[in-house]
Amino acid sequence: MNKNNPIDLDNLNVDELRAITENAQQLIAKKQHQRLYDAYMQFEKIAEDSNSTIEEILKAGEKLEKKRSIKYRNTDNHQETWTGRGRKPTWLVDALAAGRDLEDFAV
Fold first, then answer.
1. Measured between alpha carbons, how far is 17 from 23 in angstroms, rounded to an integer?
2. CB of 64 within 8 A of CB of 96?
3. At what angle do helices 54-69 and 14-49 cross, to 10 degrees?
4. Torsion angle of C-alpha atoms 78, 84, 87, 91, degrees rounded to 10
5. pLDDT per residue as tens digits for the range 62-91
6. Nearest to 73 by CA among 101, 104, 97, 100
7. Rounded to whole angstroms, how far apart are CA atoms 94 and 87?
């Protein structure tokens, strides 16, 4: 079978369709495994090139993600932050009601 000549599934019996399905599922699993293996090997090379371990990179990524997700910070109390998602925190609602601009709190 090639891409220009697809199989006419209507002419196949149930057993033939099941065989195609099983083969397709096995091929999908194989390709997914290969894709993950290739990604892992690239990741391992990046770790080696940066003289780090995969664990160190993952740990650093977690810290960066936390910092990146913060969009707004209370200028009066730096412990109070907001990602810009969900309900606005009370400190921000109060500041906006007092005439401050949202951009005043942007990180």
1. 10
2. no
3. 90
4. 20
5. 877 666 688 999 999 999 999 888 899 999
6. 104
7. 13
Please check whether residue 84 is in contact with residue 72, taking contact to mean a CB–CB distance below 8 angstroms. Answer: yes
In the chain, count of helices (H) and strands (E)?
A: 3, 2
The 3-state DSSP class for residue 107 equals coil
Q: Residue 1 above 60 pLDDT?
A: no
- Tens of pLDDT, residues 34-44: 999 999 999 99
d(CA 9, CA 24) in angstroms, rounded, equals: 14
Taking alpha carbons only, the member of 53, 107, 48, 42 closest to residue 80 is 107
pTM beyond 0.70, yes or no: no
Q: What would the mean pLDDT of 53-64 be, rounded to a whole number?
A: 86
DSSP letters for 56-70: HHHHHHHHHHHHHH-
